[in-house]
Write a structure and sequence with these properties.
The chain is an all-alpha fold and 229 residues long. The chain has one domain. 69% of the residues lie in helices and 2% in strands. The chain is built from ten helices and two strands, in the order αααααααβαβαα. Strands 1-2 form a two-stranded antiparallel sheet. Helix 4 packs across helix 5. The chain is globular and about 60 Å long.
Length: 229
């Protein structure tokens, strides 16, 4: 895998191999906490930190861990970083920590993290593993925030409500509201709304990819004709 470029790693993390939209991994927290953009951002940042630190550690120890025990070791590494993140959020972002609740420790069971540790970090150097973890984490976070923002806006007519839980009291002014008279769609902030929202995002991504493939196919004959000429 040494021939993988950093640009490809970033494109894969953000779009081509986005763990939420392509691999469909980590859907439990994704669907459960994305009733607001801030909740999605909080969990996304926590997941990204674990992604990066786990990939770095797995890459560093990949040559000294025997194949027979590599998966239990990788899980132990991930669990250690999740515990550190959970304690940090408990100390510095307590209100947000209470809202996210059980879904912070459940990062340990996120198949996307163990999957990247096994499929990529255990086979590549530290720098590429760091970029991969960062790209995958940010890509996952973008989906969390986008889905949370859409559900929050449609369901409650607000955006970035409770931003002060993450950014401090000065961030209260970041909240956008359609006003008290706005009658949102309750379905959007209920569990079915998460499935519907994710389905629409998947449909949008598939449509964009399909259109890009069609443009590429149309461009290929033109390039071949120019080359022949």
């Amino acid at each position: 895998m040494s021939d993988i470029t950093y640009g490809k790693l970033i494109r894969d993390g953000f779009w081509n191999n986005n763990q939420a939209l392509v691999a469909l991994l980590g859907l439990c927290p994704l669907l459960a906490v994305t009733n607001t953009a801030i909740n999605g951002l909080g969990l996304g940042i926590a997941t990204t930190v674990v992604f990066v630190l786990s990939n770095i550690t797995v890459s560093l120890i990949r040559n000294i861990v025997r194949n027979e025990i590599r998966l239990p070791v990788f899980v132990l590494v991930i669990a250690s970083f999740v515990t550190a993140v959970e304690l940090s959020m408990n100390a510095w972002f307590f209100e947000l920590y209470k809202i996210l609740g059980i879904f912070i420790p459940l990062i340990v069971t996120n198949c996307a993290i163990i999957g990247r540790a096994e499929a990529f970090a255990s086979k590549n150097n530290v720098i590429k593993s760091t970029v991969d973890g960062l790209a995958m984490g940010i890509g996952f976070t973008l989906v969390l925030v986008a889905l949370g923002a859409a559900r929050e806006f449609v369901g409650m007519g607000t955006l970035f409500t409770q931003a002060h839980l993450m950014f401090g009291e000065a961030a209260r002014g970041l909240t956008f509201s359609m006003g008290e008279d706005f009658k949102g769609a309750l379905l959007a902030i209920l569990p079915p709304g998460a499935f519907i929202g994710l389905g629409l995002m998947l449909a949008l991504k598939n449509n964009v990819d399909h259109r890009a493939d069609e443009r590429a196919k149309l461009a290929t004959p033109e390039k071949e004709a120019e080359t022949a000429a």
